[in-house]
């Protein structure tokens, strides 16, 4: 009797696997997952070389993993199982008691971090450098998985990224009043961006506007960001996105690659990546100009600065450069642009997981 049940169990598993595999092959395929905010693996093409090298089977496994039927349910089920086992971390994302999520950033590279730090140091004080800490740094849980030398630089940048000031300490102080990071995303909230804007005033030579001077508008209460995606599409919270509007922000002239764009792109509020409401997401080079004669700022940034840009546009005409999306030359922009101020504003993970900043700063 037991043997019969074993056979039935094996046959049922084979039938289930066959059914799921068949559905996976016939269902329409997507190239991008909005839920996970990443590109999906493409169906591999078999050849003698890829077959003999084993690359075909590796690519096929990635393809089936990304396109398997009921994938979203499997991903969420795995996350629930991990939490039921008493774990507080899923896919490198920490679950806090208040429902907030925070990514560890486990792909940090000592080599890349030091390359970027050397490139920044080579500027010799030409630019104000503000490296944004992670949510876990502000909350007090950091990951020390780097080598000793890089870890020392990592900690120093987190605490003293602008002159003698401490951006991390400022964000920690501000976080006691209101959250400076989204609960489901790695970016600064608009309030967090305002805290950074107020902190940078002395370094960049402007007087920040008081919070009361802004018209705070909540444009969505249904935002789930990158931490939610990395945690297996599991979260007990939704975030709200606020826009801090001020008179004249709709009259800013903003151009990107010869076309006009807006400070806020409300069409993205209907999509999963609602953070792209700020400037429509990331672009290589963006020019922002206000009315009359104003000082000029060169902003070298990653997506952390997207919510900061509307505040800076109060005081400067800005050339915004994201080195990850452009081949623009630092020497052409900095030496020939006649800028009054230069600001580097990017996340600490950006300078420890890629060399785009170092490439941009050393080019030319």
Keywords:
14 strands; single chain; alpha+beta; three-stranded antiparallel beta sheet; 364 residues; 14 helices; 38% helix; seven-stranded mixed beta sheet
- Measured between the Cα atoms of the first and last residue, the distance is 78 Å
Structural class computed from helices and strand pairing? alpha+beta
Instruction: Name the helix and strand elements from N-terminus to C-terminus, one letter apiece.
Output: HEEHHHEEEHEHHHHEHEEEEEHEHEHH
Number of helices: 14
Q: Any idea what the shape is?
A: globular
The percentage helix is: 25-40%
What Rg do the Cα atoms give?
23 Å
Average predicted confidence as pLDDT = 81
Percent of sequence in beta strands: 15-25%
Biggest sheet: strands side by side, in what order? 6-14-12-13-11-9-10
Number of separate strands: 14
Outline the biggest β-sheet.
7 strands, mixed
Q: Spans of 5+ residues with little confidence (pLDDT < 50)?
A: none
Textual characterization of the structure:
With 364 residues, the protein is α+β, with helices and mostly antiparallel strands. The protein has 14 helices and 14 strands. It has helices at 2-26, 48-53, 55-67, 71-84, 110-121, 135-139, 148-159, 167-175, 190-204, 226-230, 309-312, 330-336, 350-353, 356-362, and strands at residues 32-33, 38-39, 89-90, 93-95, 101-103, 128-132, 215-223, 239-245, 253-256, 259-260, 285-289, 296-301, 317-321, 341-347. The strands form 4 sheets. The protein has a 7-stranded mixed β-sheet, with helices on one face. Helix 5 crosses helix 7, helix 5 packs parallel to helix 14 (356-362) and helix 8 (167-175) packs antiparallel against helix 9 (190-204). The longest helix is centred in the N-terminal third of the chain and has 25 residues, at 2-26. 35% of the residues are buried.
């Amino acid at each position: 009797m037991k043997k019969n049940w074993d056979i039935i169990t094996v046959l049922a598993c084979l039938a289930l696997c066959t059914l799921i595999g068949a559905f996976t092959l016939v269902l329409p395929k997507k190239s991008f997952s909005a839920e996970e905010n990443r590109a999906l693996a493409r169906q591999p093409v078999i050849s003698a070389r890829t077959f003999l090298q084993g690359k075909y089977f590796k690519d096929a496994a990635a393809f089936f993993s990304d396109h398997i039927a009921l994938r979203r349910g499997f991903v969420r089920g795995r996350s629930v199982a991990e939490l039921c086992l008493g774990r507080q971390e899923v896919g490198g994302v920490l679950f806090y008691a208040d429902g907030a999520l925070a990514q560890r950033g486990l792909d940090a590279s000592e080599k890349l971090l030091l390359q970027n730090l050397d490139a920044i140091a080579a500027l010799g004080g030409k630019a104000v450098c503000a490296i944004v800490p992670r949510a876990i740094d502000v909350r007090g849980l950091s990951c020390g998985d780097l080598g000793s030398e890089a870890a020392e630089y990592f900690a120093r940048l987190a605490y003293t990224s602008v002159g003698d000031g401490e951006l991390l300490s400022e964000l920690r102080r501000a976080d006691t009043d209101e959250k400076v990071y989204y609960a489901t995303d790695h970016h600064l909230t608009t309030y967090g961006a305002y805290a950074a804007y107020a902190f940078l005033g002395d370094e960049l030579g402007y007087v920040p506007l008081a919070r009361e001077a802004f018209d705070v508008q909540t444009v969505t209460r249904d935002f789930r960001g990158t931490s939610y995606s990395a945690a297996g599409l599991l979260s007990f919270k939704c975030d709200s996105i606020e826009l801090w509007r001020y008179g004249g922000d709709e009259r800013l002239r903003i151009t990107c690659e010869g076309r006009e764009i807006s400070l806020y792109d409300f069409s993205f509020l209907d999509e999963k990546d609602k953070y792209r409401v700020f400037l429509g997401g990331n672009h290589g080079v963006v020019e922002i100009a206000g009315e009359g004669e104003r000082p000029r700022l060169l902003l070298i940034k990653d997506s952390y600065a997207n919510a900061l840009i509307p505040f800076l546009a109060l005081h400067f005409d800005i050339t915004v450069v994201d080195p990850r999306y452009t081949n623009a030359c630092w020497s052409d922009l900095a030496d020939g642009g006649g800028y009054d101020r230069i600001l580097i504003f990017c996340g600490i993970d950006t300078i420890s997981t890629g060399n785009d900043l170092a490439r941009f700063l050393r080019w030319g």
